[in-house]
Amino acid sequence: MSKAGPALLLALVLIASASKADPVARTDLVSVDVGSRPWSSVGRINNSAYGRCSAILVSPDTALTAAHCLYNARSRRFLQPASIHVLFGFDRGRYGFHATVRDIVVPERYRPADILASAPHDWAVLRLAKPVPDAFAPLALAAGPASPGTEIQAAGFAQERSEILTASTPCRVEGATFDGLLLADCRISHGFSGGPLIDLQTKELVAMGVAVATNAAGDATTLAIPAARLREALGGD
Q1: ω into 112 cis (within 30 of 0)
Q2: Which of 88, 69, 90 is nearest to 78 (CA)?
Q3: How far apart are CA 143 and CA 13, in angstroms?
Q4: Residue numbers of the domain that contains 64
Q5: For residues 221 and 215, is the Cβ–Cβ distance under 8 A?
Q6: Residue 106, number of CB atoms within 10 A of its CB
Q7: Residues 150 and 88 in one domain
Q8: How many CB atoms sit inside 10 A of residue 148's CB?
Q9: In terms of domains, do 112 and 96 share one?
Q10: Are 122 and 12 spatial neighbours (Cβ–Cβ below 8 Å)?
Q11: Cis bond leading into 38, ω under 30°?
Q12: Which residue of 18, 45, 132, 226 has the fewest C-beta atoms within 10 A of its own C-beta?
């Protein structure tokens, strides 16, 4: 994959739900069918600390999200598992399954106070209290790295349309940073943190979105944790 240097990361903005005045929020999103694959694997996270984020079901009792979605900046602590709720099949207040969390795993190298240095480690594993029904099929992780030019689509619960699941218009993988983050030109919104970047051909998980970087020209690029790193987080599953 092509590599991008530190110059790209002049500004880094987490893409959890944030102020509507933030210029990173986008409106060019498309509605998707939350009941069909691969979109049925995307859940909405509700918690009392950070607002709303997205999550990815990767096995019947395991989901992935961004670590910053689970951090309470006021208390400077991570949320207790029991306070995290993941709603699958969520659409306009209704949902198909309400998952509670029994345990969370966050990498030791993740430092909430330093979002730039911690971006490559901004992932969390959610061990669910009980398996999600078969109607919500887990999303398979891509076996290898996505090549530049691979056509993908990002999905999540955008702050400006938080009651429905939306996706970016088709976009492409651009390359990778020196520390292994995947770069893509997807036009995404706050609330997409923890949401998937899906290969449009294979329907597999290419990466998980965590942030947007802005270069000197003001162009925004999506940063995401690649599938290989997520596979390691899951213990090679």
Answers
A1: no
A2: 69
A3: 29
A4: 39-128
A5: yes
A6: 18
A7: no
A8: 15
A9: yes
A10: no
A11: yes
A12: 18
Whether 118 and 50 map to the same domain: the answer is yes
Total count of residues recorded for the chain: 237
Q: Report the distance separating Cα 206 and Cα 230, nearest Å.
A: 10
- Is 134 inside a domain boundary? no
Q: Are residues 45 and 123 in the same domain?
A: yes
Considering the domain boundaries, does residue 201 fall inside one? yes
Prediction pTM value: 0.88
If one counts the domains in the chain, the total is 2
Nearest Cα neighbor of 88 from 79, 99, 80, 77 is 99
Same-domain pairing of 121 and 47: yes
CB-CB contact of 54 with 123 (8 Å): no
CATH number for the domain including 120? 2.40.10.10
If residue 12 lies in a helix (H) or strand (E), which one and from where to where?
Answer: strand 11-14
Nearest to 152 by CA among 228, 229, 208: 208
One domain, residues 158 and 205: yes
Summarised one tens digit per residue, pLDDT across range 188-233 is: 877 899 999 999 999 999 999 887 665 555 566 899 999 999 999 8
Would you call 46 helix, strand, or coil by DSSP? Answer: strand
